[in-house]
Amino acid sequence: WTGDDVWYAHGIHLNDSEIDRIAEVRTGIAHCPSSNMRLGAGACRVGDLLRAGARVGLGVDGAASNEDANIAMEAHQALLLARVRAPSPTALDARAAWRLATKGGAECLGRDDCGSLEVGKCADIACFRVDDLAHAGIKDLVAALALAPPARAQTVIVNGRVVVREGRLLTADEDEIAREIAATSARLAG
Questions:
Q1: What residue spans define the domains of the chain?
Q2: 36-78 pLDDT, tens per residue?
């Protein structure tokens, strides 16, 4: 089950021939580093996949193994995990990590209408503060976002519409969502 309309979650137990085949048939990999580390499931061979020409994006997995659902955190974790797995400080750089979170994800989904800021594409933009203490002194803004502790986006624009302003969701009541999740979780736990 492979092809350019297929993507695999995690991709943590792939051998060399499987990596080559995935790249050849353009099957995508949704790398979920926080989930994989939390569960102790293994580490995706991101560097090997990228060198083979595979399509790799990032995922947050689900609430059972990732409470944050923060793609910036996943870019941060992907960068660090790739460097530990190699082991090399050059295994994945900040721009490659952010590419996984943006264009890489779009490629995995077969979408050419998103993933980068270009005329004619969806106007989906996340804005982060980089003038705080965690980012002080970092000249490269992409490196600042990938290496410093991931922060909550201050502004998010989806398809041209502001949905988060000053870190707060505008389209729904976050407290109500949290209550509903807690109630559903308690009900499912029995």
A1: 7-114
A2: 999 999 999 999 999 999 999 999 987 778 777 888 899 999 9
Please name the residues in contact with 64: beta carbons below 8 A apart, sequence gap of 6 or more. none
Distance CA 27, CA 125 (A): 26
pTM: 0.88
Query: Which ranges constitute the DSSP H helices of the chain?
Result: 16-25, 33-39, 46-52, 71-85, 94-99, 105-108, 141-147, 174-189
7-114 adopts what CATH topology?
TIM Barrel (3.20.20)
Dihedral sign (CA 50, 54, 58, 59): negative
